[in-house]
What does this fold into?
Amino acid sequence: MKKTFSWFRKTAFAEGVSFLVLLFIAMPLKYFAGMPMAVTIVGGLHGVLFVAFFILAREVKSDYKKDFKWLAKAGLASIIPFGTFYMDKEWKKEEAAG
It folds into this structure.
């Protein structure tokens, strides 16, 4: 069980980084430098991490007996820039409490 939360937190971090890279590097490259491939590559990677984030969030919800509110907060954190980084402090405490 502990591994699930650890993987979730690592994936949340990677998903958060990929989201920021997509928003602040790849999209400006596409629209201001005419490099649409940046969004194609980073967007694809972000999509995979986004799906993995939700799969692992559901596993954590199940393994740690979290309620739907916890899952909704995780989902909200994943669509707000810097959200997963903000929530990591809480998730770290929850993981330690086991």
